Amino acid sequence: MDIDKILHSYGKTLKDYPPMPLATEVDSSLLTERVIREEINFNKDDSNKNVSDMLAITTPEQRYAFDKIIIAVYCDEWGFFFVYGHGSTGKIFLWNLMSAEIHLRGDIVLNVASSGIASLLLPNGRMAHSGFKIPLNITEDSVCNIKPGSPQAMLLLKAKLIIWDEAPMVSKYCYEALDKCLGDIMRCSPIYSKDLPFGEKVVVLGRDFRQILSVIP
Question: What torsion do the CA atoms of 96, 97, 102, 103 make, to the nearest 10 degrees?
Answer without folding.
Answer: 60
